[in-house]
Design goal:
CATH superfamily of the largest domain in chain B: FAD/NAD(P)-binding domain
Shape of chain B: globular
Number of domains of chain A: 2
Distance between the termini of chain B: 43 Å
Radius of gyration of chain A: 29 Å
Structural class of chain A: alpha/beta
CATH class of the largest domain in chain B: Alpha Beta
Strand content of chain A: 25-35%
Number of helices of chain A: 9
Number of helices of chain B: 17
Helix content of chain B: 25-40%
Radius of gyration of chain B: 23 Å
Number of strands of chain B: 24
Distance between the termini of chain A: 79 Å
CATH topology of the largest domain in chain A: Rossmann fold
Largest sheet of chain B: 8 strands, mixed
CATH architecture of the largest domain in chain B: 3-Layer(bba) Sandwich
Oligomer: heterodimer
Largest sheet of chain A: 9 strands, mixed
Number of domains of chain B: 4
CATH class of the largest domain in chain A: Alpha Beta
Shape of chain A: elongated
Strand order of the largest sheet of chain A: 9-8-7-10-6-1-4-5-11
Strand content of chain B: 15-25%
CATH topology of the largest domain in chain B: FAD/NAD(P)-binding domain
Chain lengths: 328, 551
């Protein structure tokens, strides 16, 4: 069995699941007396190819092209299709990464093949390879086999095999071969932009010492600016009770309460918040709670250290003024 | 683009792990075990029985009073008394008539309220225990998976599709997107509980309705820890009268559990004239009655919940067998509408379904021709015996309690026939009268100690949903809410929902419906009681919903 392993690197760094997938390939190769070609794709990746060559593989295939410098689904699919045509593999293995999830199903589909994704293991039964993948959020495992002609496509879940059991090359080094691919700029329909890392949360309210929180009493999104002015004058963060975030007036990460963040700042200024228990459980640990509400029976006053029964629209600008004055 | 779903095949797929679904699974697994031990053909295995449960844990969505007649459980698990969490045997059953200030005990407890021989239980605990037996028998139970769509096949069903996971509120896949599984089975058992969302579709699609439409009640419940000595374990009381008018059908319950724990609640028929009637507020008002107040004083609210229940009786049960499909438990209307008891009938229905399925698997024919056996077994069991006697009971109360007592009294002495048989029923939502510009009543606030507003109660239901998911309460026409309904009925959804899900928010000079779907406790009242029938309750992402620990 001829096995191709498509490794993944990006910006000078390996995706470690690549090595785990190589381990899987080594075990499959052993079970089927197969050979492994480790494929590295990109531009200027010879250092990666050399590193792969120290592992127990039959060869390393270096697929280099200017248009492969940055990952694009079209670039990878076009290049790898040509590799499959020239090498005629039986089995193509991928690490189950986000990038693989992006292009591998498309690649398999353009070749009219199925793909078994996110496998956690394999078994050899007679002359059949059985892949194991989890279902029902890991509650049960399904055995999957390929029908139809090779090549077959499969990806392995991160952590399914241990990278430290990767066998080194017996003779020292496997040959590194360069595979030529034809790519034209018009083959690639997407244009990669700057890479960015999505911030987990733009604001960490749990670390904020001063919080100005608004509730239904704010009435309309255009009034939020007034509360933000208070927060700014105070040097605090703006937060909200659930209805405000539900409406999309503030992002969800600024929601305080049982379905949002739990905070315990030095000062919690609650503006127009009635104090439903769902909100209170998220802020009752605050050192000092100041509440402003029109309704003197609002439950927020039960836990407030200082309460003002008033219209927040009178209090907010006055408070902003005074805070600014105090700061000079 | 069509989603490619993973397919799995089972012999039997049971949607819902309540008393009916789990009894079906357990009884079938037991039958298969005997079958295997005898070496008979064909090969059957309990591993090919799948159970889906939308809750985080087994029992998480179970709510009942509950008083259980143990006879069905005794058939299912003969030595049940050794290990079942039965809490306490009923020692005294009282019927109380409430007026605003006083209560009167009926000198002789009327037979429907007599519970000698029954047990006060926590349905949550019972179901958890049953789930353990089912899993030990080798059945695959999948928690946090709901049945989202039916797969139609032949003149019936061939399985279900589970709900998609990891979809954001705009319907876009998130990082953890997992399309629902396509689960195919020789027999699919709908055991979704009251007003099942798939059952509703199947009944409509295949026209399975009986003579009468199903009618429902809503039960609102709180669990309290009270001061020692306030109530004896095993004391059960049912109350009639205040605060409900004689035009309304319903009443309260007070059940003494062990360790100074009390189950209290109010059941109200979802067929009342005033669209601004608020069942949750009625329950809170009932709690302020001196009798209940005295019981709860110094105590602490432990948990809250609500659920609808199918009241319609024998003539409202849908046809419960189709090609490849059966309907059991509350989904099939298995409830004694006089005593409002359904747990034993749910268990029995699950068992009879299991027996019919077992025969069908053995002969290799799961069409309705073979599955009809289920219906035949029901007709020869105590399910029919019990339900037949009260087949016209609920209908007699259509015009209020006075007519109801007369008519049901006559039924009592004629074996259920009464003056008219069958008595017809109308869907409950047709009972609403127009508001004709009457202003809304002020919302119930509660004192925070004995009585509570809805949000505080909802907090005590432990309900939780993934926030970033599509709204699972589909309103088919929001314009109706903002126009016709404001005028005609004053938006009853704001009042009948016991979890403050529906809210009319100001928008410009008018109103718009705002749905706080994350508050939902899965009682299904909105799907039932909406006057225009435009609210469709669908399953949210699995794992969402209340946590009815101990309920």
């Amino acid at each position: 069995m001829k096995i191709l392993v498509i490794t993944e690197q990006r910006q000078g760094k390996w995706n470690k699941t690549s090595f785990e997938t190589l381990v899987a390939a080594q075990q499959i190769a052993e079970a089927t007396s197969g050979t492994i070609s480790a494929v590295v794709v990109g531009k200027g990746v010879s250092a990666f190819a050399d590193e792969l060559a120290t592992k127990n593989v039959s060869e390393v295939l270096m697929v280099e092209h200017d248009l492969l410098e940055n990952y694009t689904p079209d670039g990878y699919c076009t290049a790898l299709k040509q590799i499959f045509e020239s090498t005629k593999p039986d089995l193509v293995l991928f690490p189950h990464t986000y990038q693989v999830r992006d292009f591998a199903p498309k690649l398999a589909a353009t070749l009219g093949k199925g793909m078994v994704g996110d496998c956690i293991g394999f078994r050899k039964e007679g002359d059949k390879l059985v892949f194991v993948r989890q279902m029902f959020q890991g509650k049960t495992a399904a055995d999957v086999t390929f029908i139809g002609a090779a090549p077959w496509f499969a990806s392995f879940q991160s952590g399914a095999f241990r990278a430290d059991s990767l066998a080194a090359h017996l003779g020292g080094k496997a040959p590194v071969n360069t595979a030529r691919v034809e790519l034209k700029p018009e083959d690639i329909r997407t244009k990669p932009l700057e890479l960015f890392k999505e911030a987990k949360s733009a604001v960490d309210l749990t670390q904020a010492p001063l919080i100005v929180a608004i509730g239904r009493g704010i009435k309309a999104p255009e009034n939020i600016a007034q509360a933000e002015a208070v927060a700014k004058a105070l040097g605090g963060e703006i937060a909200a009770s659930r209805p405000i975030c539900d409406e999309g007036w503030l992002p969800m990460e600024r929601q305080i309460g049982s379905s949002g963040q739990t905070v315990a700042p030095k000062l919690y200024l609650a503006l127009g918040i009635s104090g439903a228990i769902q909100h209170v459980v998220g802020m009752k640990g605050s050192r000092t709670i100041v509440a402003v509400n029109k309704d003197q029976n609002a439950p927020i006053f039960e836990i407030a250290d200082y309460g003002i029964v008033a219209d927040i629209f009178e209090i907010m600008p006055a408070l902003t003024d005074e805070l600014q004055k105090a700061k000079g | 683009m069509a989603i490619q779903r993973e397919q799995l095949e089972a012999d039997v797929l049971i949607v819902g792990a309540g008393p009916a679904g789990l009894s079906c699974a357990l009884h079938l697994a037991n039958l298969i075990q005997i079958h295997k031990a005898s070496g008979a053909r064909p090969d059957l295995s309990a591993e090919n029985i799948y159970v889906l449960e939308k809750g985080r844990e087994l029992g998480a969505h179970q709510l009942s009073g509950a008083i259980m007649n143990p006879k069905a459980l005794a058939e299912l698990v003969p030595d049940f008394e050794k290990s079942a969490p039965l809490d306490t045997a009923v020692t005294d059953s009282a019927a109380l008539l409430f007026t605003q200030k006083s209560s009167y005990r009926f000198p002789i407890t009327p037979p429907p309220f007599n519970n000698a021989g029954n047990f006060v239980i926590s349905l949550n605990k019972l179901v958890k225990w049953m789930g353990g037996l089912v899993e030990a028998a080798g059945v695959n139970v999948f928690k946090e998976f709901g049945g989202a769509e039916l797969i139609y096949e032949g003149n019936g069903i061939g399985g279900v599709v589970t709900e998609d996971k990891g979809v954001d509120k705009n319907g876009k896949p998130k990082d953890n997107y997992t399309p629902g599984y396509e689960l195919r089975a020789k027999v699919t058992v709908l055991a979704e509980g009251t007003r099942g969302s798939l059952t509703k579709r199947l009944v409509a699609q295949k026209k399975l309705d009986n003579l009468n439409p199903q009618t429902y009640g809503i039960g609102i419940k709180e669990l309290w820890d009270v001061q020692p000595g306030k109530i004896k374990p095993g004391f059960v009381a049912h109350t009639l009268g205040w605060p409900l008018s004689t035009k309304m059908y319903g009443g309260g319950w007070i059940y003494g559990l062990s360790n100074n724990r009390v189950s209290i609640g109010l059941v109200i028929s979802l067929e009342y004239a005033d669209p601004r009637f608020d069942p949750h507020a009625a329950f809170q008002t009932w709690k302020a009655h001196p009798f209940v107040r005295n019981l709860l004083e110094g105590g602490k609210l432990v948990r809250y919940g609500a659920k609808s229940l199918p009241y319609g009786g024998w003539y409202a049960m849908p046809r419960n067998y189709v090609d490849g499909g059966l309907i059991v438990g509350d989904s099939g209307g298995f409830l004694d509408s006089q005593r409002l008891k359904g747990v034993h009938l749910a268990i029995k229905s699950g068992m009879l379904a299991a027996e019919a399925i077992f025969e069908a698997l053995k002969v290799g024919d799961t069409s309705e021709k073979t599955l009809k056996l289920y219906k035949e077994k029901i007709d020869h069991s105590y399910i029919k015996e019990e339900m037949w006697k009260v087949r016209n009971f609920h209908q007699s109360f259509h015009n209020g309690l006075v007519d109801g007592f007369v008519l049901s009294g006559i039924q009592q002495i004629t074996g259920g026939r009464g003056l008219i048989d069958p008595m017809h029923a109308r869907p409950g939502y047709e009972a609403y009268h127009h508001i004709h510009g009457r202003p809304a009543r002020e919302r119930f606030q509660g004192d925070g100690k004995l009585t509570f507003d809805r949000l505080t109660d909802v907090y005590h239901s432990g309900t939780r949903h993934e926030e970033d998911q599509p709204c699972h309460l589909k309103v088919l026409d929001l314009d109706i809410c903002a126009t016709r309904c404001v005028e005609e009925y004053g938006n009853p959804c704001q009042y009948f929902c016991p979890a403050a899900v529906y809210e009319m928010a100001k928008q410009g000079s008018g109103l718009r419906l705002k749905i706080n779907a994350a508050n939902c406790v899965h009682c299904k009242t909105c799907d039932i009681a909406d006057p225009y029938q435009i609210i469709d309750w669908t399953v949210p992402e699995g794992g969402g919903g209340p946590n009815y620990e101990g309920m």
